[in-house]
Design a protein that fits this description.
Elements (H helix, E strand, L loop, with lengths): L2 E6 L8 H23 L32 H24 L8 E4 L25 H10 L2 H12 L11 H33 L2 E6 L2 E6 L8 E4 L8 E4 L4 E5 L1 H4 L4 E5 L2 H4 L6 H4 L2 E5 L11 E5 L6 E5 L10 E2 L4 E7 L5 H4 L10 H28 L5 H11 L7 H19 L7 E2 L11 E6 L6 E11 L4 E2 L4 H21 L1 H13 L7 H14 L4 E4 L23 E4 L3 H13 L2 E5 L3 E5 L5 E10 L7 E8 L5 E7 L1 H4 L9 H10 L2 E11 L1 H16 L4 H12 L4 E12 L3 H10 L3 E5 L4 H10 L8 E4 L6 H12 L4 E6 H20 L3 E5 L3 H15 L2 E6 L5 H6 L2 E5 L6 H5 L2 E3 L4 H41 L10 H8 L4 H5 L9 H6 L4 H5 L6 H25 L7 H20 L5 H20 L19 H28 L5 H4 L1
Parallel strand pairs: 1-6, 15-27, 15-31, 27-30, 28-29, 29-30, 31-32, 32-33
Antiparallel strand pairs: 1-13, 2-9, 3-4, 3-5, 5-13, 6-13, 7-8, 7-12, 9-10, 10-11, 14-33, 16-17, 16-26, 18-19, 20-21, 21-22, 22-23, 23-24, 24-25, 25-26
Amino acid sequence: ASEILPVRRLLSVSLEEGTSSRAATGHMYQLEDESAHLDEMPLMMSEEGFENDESDYHTLPRARVTQRKRGLEWFVCGGWKFLCTSCCDWLVNICQRKRELKARTVWLGYPEKCEEKHPRNSIKNQKYNVFTFIPGVLYEQFKFFLNLYFLVVSCSQFVPALKIGYLYTYWAPLGFVLAVTIMREAIDEFRRFQRDKEVNSQLYSKLTVRGKVQVKSSDIQVGDLIIVEKVDAFLIYFRHVYASSCFIRTDQLDGETDWKLKVAVSCTQRLPALGDLFSISAYVYAQKPQLDIHSFEGTFTREDCDPPIHESLSIENTLWASTIVASGTVIGVVIYTGKETRSVMNTSNPKNKVGLLDLELNQLTKALFVALVALSVVMVTLQGFVGPWYRNLFRFLLLFSYIIPISLRVNLDMGKAAYGWMIMKDESIPGTVVRTSTIPEELGRLVYLLTDKTGTLTQNEMVFKRLHLGTVSYGADTMDEIQNHLRNPYSQMQSQASGNNTSSTLPRKAQSSAPKVRKSVSSRVHEAVKAIALCHNVTPVYEPRAGMTGEAEYTEADQDFSDGNRTYQAASPDEVALVQWTESVGLTLVSRDLTSMQLRTPSGQILTYSILQMFPFTSESKRMGVIVRDESTTEIMFYMKGADVAMSSIVQYNDWLEEECGNMAREGLRTLVVAKRALTEEQYQDFESRYSQAKLSIHDRALKVAAVVESLEREMELLCLTGVEDQLQADVRPTLEMLRNAGIKIWMLTGDKLETATCIAKSSHLVSRTQDIHIFRPVTNRGEAHLELNAFRRKHDCALVISGDSLEVCLKYYEHELVELACQCPAVVCCRCSPTQKAHIVKLLQQHAGRRTCAIGDGGNDVSMIQAADCGIGIEGKEGRQASLAADFSITQFKHIGRLLMVHGRSSYKRSAALGQFVMHRGLIISTMQAVFSSVFYFASVPLYQGFLMVGYATLYTMFPVFSLVLDQDVKPEMAMLYPELYKDLTKGRSLSFKTFLVWVLISIYQGGILMYGALLLFESEFVHVVAISFTALILTELLMVALTVRTWHWLMAVAEVLSLGCYVASLAFLNEYFGKGAVSRDVAFITTVTFVWKVSAITVVSCLPLYVLKYLKRKLSPPSYSKLTS
């Protein structure tokens, strides 16, 4: 979708261009000078300057990259890789030069007037196109050493001098692996193509001189006037069809489900008819496309009137792509399209994820390759380099090529598919979908979990829980008392009003000037509820009646003002919760516009209030206020509500506020302090004149305006304290505790406010009760970042809370130090994070900590983070399915992540490690036998077993038992969930390491040697049977080794063992020509003799028994950690 500036609702702000650019230039010089000075500053610096205390000189370790000497060593150790990638990047940059992003002038409704070309408004998520698909997929496959090695080996079989056995023994497995991969990629790619096509062909209404026309999303151009109805999204906003403002939802952009108010440009909103948009000569000047979704600068100019009208545009005049108009219809002009929209600029390209286990196996494969080359060289050396030795060397390389088994890739890929199937079939986590089948083992290796807040940890449903008046507190069970208190004052008012109007105003006027008497509880409740019902930015919205079309401008009579048809819209769900609560106790907000609002009392009377001033909530002031005039009494009231830190200094002295705020916060409630102050007409007029003057000033406007407002914020009467609960998702607390016990560090990255994020971190037990929280002060330059980092470094075992802006500054100057300090924290909360920042934090953790990361989220703003992490988990939530479609694993509830990691992550990793090593053992053992065979027979490069036996060995005879290791489990699922500490062992990667690999290598050499020498020793006289004997013993050994490796038996494992043995015995009878060496086997009779059976049994026992004894001793002397639990 494109991005639009609403035209028939374009909004007004003023920009001073000349002055700001001059100021910026001066500031830039100053900054450069400051950073030059800071470069020489030692990193530890105390607020008082430098103290002589020695502890102050433990400077933070600076990240200095030592320049390696670029010699031959550098080239061999990876320099060649660096040079290759540099060349490729250079070529790619030349091929697709990035256009420089520039500011633009957009004429209303005349896209053809645009001087430069803008990108097409189409979305493209595909990785490949028709030409790059096959090369791209093949590159992804053969960049792995394992696959590349097989390709070379298979191709060598086309050379007659090197041919060993049959072509199919090499090409069949390789062809199978490639066919499966290409099919899988093709299906994924086709699905992406279909999704893109669906989005790009959505229809929108475009306004032209001739009226409305339908255009596809991909045909929208910069400068088009688009009519955006209820569910479409994207623009500057020029005109609203019914009012001068509208609400939009931005959950897919910043993850927050609250509704944002957008205002139309007043110049175009005043035009009498839609067609007049084409009769005026007007243009929008907009800044160049940027990543920041929270700011926009531009101007609207109308040239055809005298003098020309200039209006400044800000963020509140824009509708970004991927946002949704929640009410009404908007007309806007398209400013940014396609790749230049905020949502596309904030999403990163998906990368192909490779699991840590695959990388480790790739390293082991390289080690095996070195062993293979060494073994071949030794063989040729022992031959004495006779004749064409290099040809013999290559033949030996091919003979021993089974050291690196091709079936490793096949087995592991099939294993991954099996784990995916098991995860999706698990009834304890229903609705889980595995979208990336290549990384299930990653779930067992995670150290960092980065989670979103809204919709992931919380349900984003606010519920009013507590009203505290100082002496009395009302909870959920005593709300009916409040209703009773409210009925009394309003019924009295009504009876007075019905008597005569003058008498009703006089007593109240008198009362306000009379000395203060202790108010009754009833009147205090009444005051508090009225303040909550008036001090907010909530708008009630009524849907048009069914059957009404958006075309006709409907009148108010067409609207349905019944309670059931009303929905509240506001910039924060807390606000809505408060207004819904006042409705539930009897005081209902029935209508509101920019200048007035109406409340309905329990008795049905309508009270009208004029809105004289609004002071919106900002993260700096942490409070909002409103000045209203009661139309019936002409009384002027200033109401204010805000965070306790901001309000405690504003309200009159009291002894209960601080204590009660602390109590509510411990319960996980979000607190707001509500206060009021009555103003006389003179006081208000004086304030208004000063306020208007401050708003017009050019220099330090924000400071002057704040100062005027603060003059009112004195000695306010404290009315009440409210507590609202953001309900957590089911079982969030036990799940987070389980993950913490499992050694996983949890970071919360949210686009929400600092106070809210801190509150949820406490209530979800992300930060435990005993831990301190260090709130990183806002920093804007290097010096401040420096001091703040040092202050944080002195703290121990405390959670860190940091905002996105401060994070950006710290990462610019002290990236290494910040990440190092943050990694030591038990928990980290980053608030006000943009989607790009979330992804950046994930990448930083991967670089600096070198551990596996997992990101979990539920909105479009989490997609970048999910794609950047080693393992991305999406939750299907209220914010749509965007995150769950982009993720590797999709779950329906946050609590399912516990079982996904503890049970499935554990078993996937353990099984794949056992399977990988066993498949390697299977290749090593046969290569050892080949080496012994060749060395006994004068180092001849002749294969021991014929082609079919080799294929049968890796498939039919041993495949099922070996593959049945994917059903093995060392710990029952219940145990793994009960003792999450077991997960810590997995992150150390001990199940598959060079140590375990060496153990398997030694086992293989021992067994291979015993099998071959045993066969040669026992069968000297009947050498022709050596192949049959050794091969039978080999198969039996393999089957027994599987039984030895298994930790928990499954009935399918037993079936696989019996089936494989049966297949082998049958083939002995029918394929006997393969078993005789050179000549056709004498007869089947020999195989059935007692001699054959006892000799094979003897060799098998010698090769396996010692290993069973060793395994038994190891279990007795150093049992694994989990065996203590299972016994």
